Amino acid sequence: TVLVEGLPLGSLTNIQGYYVLPKVPVGAQTLVFTYIGYAAVRRTVTITPDTDTRLDVRLQPEVLLGQEVVIRADSMRAAEMLFRKPISQIRLNPAQINALPQVAESDLLRSLQSLPGVLPLSDFSSALYVRGGTPDQNLYLLDGTDVYNPEHTFGIFSTFNTDAIKQADMSKGGFGAEYGGRLSSVLDVTNLDGNREEFEGTASLSLLSAKTTLQAPLGDRGSLSGSIRRTYFDQTIAHAIDDIPDYWFYDGNLKAYLELSPRDQLTISTYGGRDYLDVIFNPDAADPTGIAIDWGNKTGSLRWTRVITPKLFGTFWLTGSRFTSDFSLPIADVTERNVVTDVTFKGNVEHHYSDALTTRFGFEEKNLNVEYNQDFPEGHIRLGHEPKHLVMYATSSLRPSSRWEIEPGLRFNQFSSDKTFRNLAPRLSIKHRLTDTFNLRAATGVYYQYLHRVPRFAFTDIFISSNQHQAESSSVHAIVGMQKEWARNVQIEIEAFWKDYSNIYQFNQNFLTDFTEDGYDEQDNPILSNTSGVFNRGDGHSTGFEAMLRKDSGAITGWLAYSLARTEYSFDGINGDRAYTPRHDRTHVINAVSNIDVVGAWRKAHGRHRSGGGNWTLGANFVYGSGQPITDPGSGYVTRSSPHQDTWWVRYAPTEINGVRIPAYSRLDLSLTYKRDFGSWSMAPYLQVFNAGNRANVWFIDYDFNNGVPDVEIVNMFPVLPTFGVTFTF
């Protein structure tokens, strides 16, 4: 935050640190630069008529120990940040992510699941279901690069290593024209640029993984940061528990920041990760059978930022992303491979005409290669397209007065595969400041998506692009809300939303019955090379209400959130064409997250100072969610394979799809961290307990029909799971 002391002038920098303060009065002015966790910097400059002044500052990290310090104009800064924040956006820093109790280690996607409107499907998934949408409807960006499958298996870990994150912005809807290609949300993650002053690092060990992150300056002109992580399920738990499959993964990233000139910055970022899973069904058999699957992402980005003029700022990217998965089932002679390759060139130029008008223009050229191949004894599947996605957009920020901000935008999409789709996507956001601490806001927009997925239980999903058989998906967002700063660093946000979906697709479980041959191989086995029977087409809508009380600083931090939502889908030929609630729907959800600086809270309560020694942090995460819908069997019938056989089978037909709900979900997680400084390094051992109450939350219900009358078995999610580890910072 950049403020002119004594004047109602201020600005927020963008993620690269660029800011503009137009029409600053002539004469000596003092500027105050602040950022949470860093020492404030004050600089006095002399402004002369008709002259542009450039002022760069570098902030230093600062930890304050002592009595509470009241900073003048702090409420003004917080109110301005609250007003400028886009609608439905949540920003998390690494400290907030790391403070949440987790299964094995801090994880970005699991942390986001504690926010209103963001739901998991189960304990075993870190996938995000945002305001009724599905995980494939979320746009994941890592340093500007698309990530197509951000999950590791079992849902315990995600692609994003929290130690390497600089900032994570989550937009749950109503996002501007600069984002597109997805229907529901945007998660924009920026990794650390690196420490430009000195070498520093962190290293963590837990029961399931080890990781390290290092940062170092590159002379006077840049910095370097990198991280690497590896799990060792295969070396620890898998040897002790027979039911744990042989599984492990690694991932790592490297990022270099270079200041080429006072006007030019270059950032080079790469990421790579791979999962390996082997499951043996009958390990004691003479000829054991199982499955083998490995998958992973590789990304790279080259970002050039330039201050073209003092009021004109440009950012340009060249990015590459590649997701691959390989699966084999030797006993059935089945193999498959899915590949998504993305090479993108894009740019964004923002112009600060005045404090009342800022405009942004951008373009994007995305070159995709989407392939899915499967071989099985009865035939082959060969699905592939090489589409090109062209985008142009423009958006403006209009501030006719200090109380109003209007942001219209327009995005043009052209997606070309074996059919060309062209769409205009208008966007509009309006914010009104009733008082310095009370804001009203609304947003609407049209969104398009050209990739569709085939979801699969426990394994990686398959992506297929729009084509002559599957049109583009679309959605319309409408959001209204309010924000209120109650006290210093305490805010409440309330939002209501409505989303409409058109041309959404669901995997057709009976697609082999619609198998259309496109040729035959040498053995006269059929080959499928089109997607005409792979999906069922449908529409849907979601409505909801969310409230969140949040405190970001002080001895006690956290949030309390409630969401009320309803999602309904209807697919052609499914459920008698009647609408039904999908599996991920939860009507009521309550989240309570709290982190207590034990020493700081004690000191404040007793009005005492404390120096030396360590610091204890207590964390708690409570979630309650009403039951998810399932389909239960409702009628039975007797059948046999042929009239000439004497063996009869009892079969059951389902009732209305997802017509009943399983019991409500409830879970309490706890964590305790002790941090001790030893001069140039520190150590922080921690203990975390997932599901501290050992509640038996229902995952699904299994009906066994072998005995005629169904034998019902309830399958639960994670029991109480304690874990411990230690983090070193140096």
What oligomeric assembly is this protein in? single chain
Shape: globular
| Low-pLDDT segments, ≥5 res | 64-76
Report the β-strand fraction as a percent range: over 45%
Mean pLDDT: 85
Helix content: under 10%
Radius of gyration: 27 Å
Largest sheet: 22 strands, antiparallel, barrel
The end-to-end distance, rounded to whole angstroms, is 28 Å
Number of helices in the DSSP assignment: 5
Helix/strand/pairing category: mainly beta
Number of strands: 43
Structure in words:
By secondary structure, this protein is mostly beta strands. Helices cover 5% and strands 56% of the residues. The protein contains five helices and 43 strands. The protein has a 22-stranded antiparallel barrel. A five-stranded mixed sheet has the order 5-10-11-8-9. The radius of gyration is 27 Å and the shape is globular. The model is unreliable at 64-76 (pLDDT under 50).
Quick summary:
Helix content is 5%, strand content 56%. The longest helix is centred in the first third of the chain and has 11 residues, at 74-84.
Topology of helices and strands:
Layout (H helix, E strand, L loop, with lengths): L1 E3 L4 E3 L15 E7 L7 E7 L26 H11 L4 E4 L1 H5 L9 H5 L5 E2 L9 E2 L7 E5 L2 E2 L18 E7 L13 E7 L8 E7 L2 E9 L4 E10 L5 H4 L5 E16 L2 E17 L9 E20 L2 E18 L4 E21 L2 E20 L2 E7 L2 E14 L2 E13 L3 E16 L2 E12 L1 E4 L7 E4 L7 E15 L2 E18 L19 E2 L6 E17 L4 E16 L16 E10 H9 L8 E11 L3 E2 L2 E7 L9 E6 L5 E2 L3 E14 L2 E10 L7 E7 L6 E6 L4 E9 L1
